[in-house]
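Researcher: We plan to redesign the surface later, but first we want a full-length starting point. Tokens attached.
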């Protein structure tokens, strides 16, 4: 009975997850594949890669944005919608949902991609 209750709770929690969360989880799986491979092949990925996209939401407190970016050939990334953390150098007060932005990302030594520059095109 306890197990059943737990299962029900888990299912309820899953159902509460938004469709977007499911999409993100899926894309993250894909990203592990292409992101990891590219990083391995290049060794230290300290050089910034540039991309463009549209901001869907900004989490200034958490230091991340949800962005729908165009393909980034240098990383073998297809166009996708994803959450990307930003570094402390990025001022998120200047961007909001719906903004088209140019950005630079770097793969950290912890294997996490972070936006290091984010700006609206001039
Ligand atoms: Cu992506």
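Model: Full-length starting sequence:
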């Amino acid at each position: 009975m306890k197990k059943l209750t737990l299962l029900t709770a888990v299912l309820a929690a899953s159902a509460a997850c938004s469709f977007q969360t499911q999409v993100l989880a899926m894309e993250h799986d894909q990203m592990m594949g292409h992101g990891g491979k590219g990083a391995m092949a290049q060794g230290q990925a300290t050089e910034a890669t540039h991309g463009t996209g549209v901001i869907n939401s900004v989490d200034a407190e958490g230091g991340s944005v949800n962005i729908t970016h165009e393909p980034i050939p240098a990383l073998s990334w297809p166009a996708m919608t994803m959450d990307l953390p930003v570094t402390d150098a990025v001022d998120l007060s200047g961007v909001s949902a719906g903004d088209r932005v140019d950005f630079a990302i770097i793969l950290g030594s912890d294997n996490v991609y972070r936006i290091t520059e984010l700006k609206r095109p001039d």
